[in-house]
Amino acid sequence: MITAQDKSSRARAGELRLGHGVVQTPDFMPVGTNATVKSLDPEELKALGAQIILANTYHLYLRPGHERVQRFGGLHEFMQWDRPILTDSGGFQVVSLGPLMRINEEGAKFSSHLDGSMHLFTPERSIEVQQALGPDIAVAFDQPVMPEGSTDREVRRAMDRTHRWAVRSLRAHSRPGQALFGIAQGGINPELRAESATYIRSLPFDGINLGGLAGDETPEQRNTAIDATVTALEGDLRVRYLMGLGSPVDLLEAVLRGVDLFDSVLPARVARNGQAWVTGGRLNLRNARHLDEQEPVDAQCDCSTCRRFSRAYLAHLFRAEELLAYRLLTIHNLRHMSAFMGEVRRAIASGTLAAELPRLRAAAGGPGTPRLGAGDEPGAVPERGAMQPRYAAAGRLRGAQQKRAVASEDKE
Amino acid sequence: MITAQDKSSRARAGELRLGHGVVQTPDFMPVGTNATVKSLDPEELKALGAQIILANTYHLYLRPGHERVQRFGGLHEFMQWDRPILTDSGGFQVVSLGPLMRINEEGAKFSSHLDGSMHLFTPERSIEVQQALGPDIAVAFDQPVMPEGSTDREVRRAMDRTHRWAVRSLRAHSRPGQALFGIAQGGINPELRAESATYIRSLPFDGINLGGLAGDETPEQRNTAIDATVTALEGDLRVRYLMGLGSPVDLLEAVLRGVDLFDSVLPARVARNGQAWVTGGRLNLRNARHLDEQEPVDAQCDCSTCRRFSRAYLAHLFRAEELLAYRLLTIHNLRHMSAFMGEVRRAIASGTLAAELPRLRAAAGGPGTPRLGAGDEPGAVPERGAMQPRYAAAGRLRGAQQKRAVASEDKE
Prior knowledge:
2 copies of one chain form a homodimer.
Chain A: E1 2-5, E2 12-18, E3 21-25, E4 27-30, H1 42-47, E5 53-55, H2 57-62, H3 66-71, H4 75-79, E6 85-87, H5 91-96, E7 101-103, E8 108-111, E9 118-121, H6 123-133, E10 137-139, H7 152-172, E11 179-184, H8 190-201, E12 207-210, H9 219-232, E13 239-243, H10 248-256, E14 261-264, H11 266-272, E15 275-278, E16 281-284, H12 304-308, H13 311-319, H14 323-349, H15 353-363, H16 399-411
Parallel strand pairs in A: 4-14, 5-6, 10-11, 11-12, 12-13, 13-14
Antiparallel strand pairs in A: 1-2, 2-3, 7-8, 8-9, 15-16
């Protein structure tokens, strides 16, 4: 449900009413791949403002197994998280397996990256697994492709299949109270994006995902794809979720283009590497100068890390490779994202987004942000180097690259 | 200050009044080597009942540096822990360096295990570092030896030197409000233990440590050494602290022999390996059967882990090598230790220790405890395999063994 529409852009604010609570949008979902947002417990997630988290169907299907989770009363009970959960469909992870995977009209047959055992994921199977896991939102099974490295023909083929699988996913879905989102694909080709969005829009999904982005495309290619998709969704009040996007500057631009929901491992992953996201840029806490700084990571942040600890203490913990370092900085980066999205929501709701945009862009680490100091970088340039390609074209990438993508996901 | 003396044993209850609070004894101190108890934050430590923690002088001297900690207002401020802290003297870590260390009457010259830089620790330097770190309790610099692998002559020589260093530590100590504990050595030779205890007792320390134990000695050798020490301390009301002992069954036996205070990395280290200490024994959460158990780790435990999460969830987290696993089980094991010591204190104070001893021994995992299940072991046998030798005789051990001991400490 849309509660406010910005007049200067396509940005909108809304409410997503789910079994375990209401999610105010736009918002960012922390990723809890293995039914845990790495190093954090549910209380910390609530305290930092997480309204909803994402869990990975592929990982939980393989370990500990969806039936086991179901026996324990579902994901919420299993991980003791009583706010909303979204599960992805497993499509991305399966397709990323590359040579370990064979795809046809029925579905994707793959060999587990954990023990080599063989599995078949079909739209029906993905929905069955997600119904057993019991999130508030399930997602239709799709066939993503790497946007930049794929031909239009390959993108169209995967898109058409994704459309057929969308119908099968809808038919297979029967869990009362569980929302089902469909995925619009189409690579970076605006015509295909529009065609896919138009088709997925015609189906009775509860929300519409923008798939196949946040991968190897440029920001310009991504923006073009978003614009084509959102134009085709004009007037549609369902939530729009761009999978895999994770930096404040990227999220702000996507919100302005009409996207409502995001997820990414990025804020947590870079935190474990010592990178703090602060108002207007970022800091690398492995940098020696932070060892002598008594101020918090971000004086403007209200997270439990910034309210208690100095940069010096965190810098020390990172040098000593202490587990607490990863936890404290993950709390901060996720709070930073949550607070930033809260700012954006407030600006949309109060009709001041246009006026606040320069400030919000600067806070996100937008162009023109001064460098924060030696070794630190403003957040202006989206952090591509820190991410593994999120989508791999089936059977087209070299083995090493595919393995890396899978290993990277598995770590999350 | 002693508040209760058990009539059936040498066990006693007391209060240790310190600048940052009162410590009820007997008690166990969690170890925060690098100014952090691995994976836990101060609130969790308080919630699990930690009255006092230990931090390592050697590690903090090298990284981040005691002067840096001092500039930040001392350890309490640096790590945001407002209850008491004890620092060790660095003697053990320095002597464990073996070939990287040369010891003479002045002190111990050693090469940092971090970067190879050369350093000299003397009694005066150790006290200076501890005064800068600012714990509630500092400890005199000593020369420990490996009890089992040393000749009486070597033990006597190190003991005599420890006595001279005790006097130098006392003379060097000037920080108001900071207690200073002395270390009685003497290996496993009862005469030397008695001689050392008698000498250290004669000095104006605020507490008396039993050094050179919790290493490679047998429980019988340790008990003999404790008995000889405590006999020589008869009537002395100062707190007695046995450094390095860490399992419930070991602690109970030492308390019965008149020891008041303990520290060890053991409960936290085995937790990170998946081993849970429960009433009457222990569980290995890496064991497959726990994946299907809905009950908490220990139904009798009131820790935040047992109040929220199932064994199944923890077993899953351990298999997925999730950081949250280490944290949740560390909370449990430390709470288990804290609650157990609380039980022992209560029994001493109420004069029911003798009557409760069979139950307490069974709870600690005493002899006769039934096996808990396939792959799990009762805690009856002190966990020697899980520990690296805690003391290494200077220049007598092979390099690999010494390196292992140091590496092991560094990990903590």
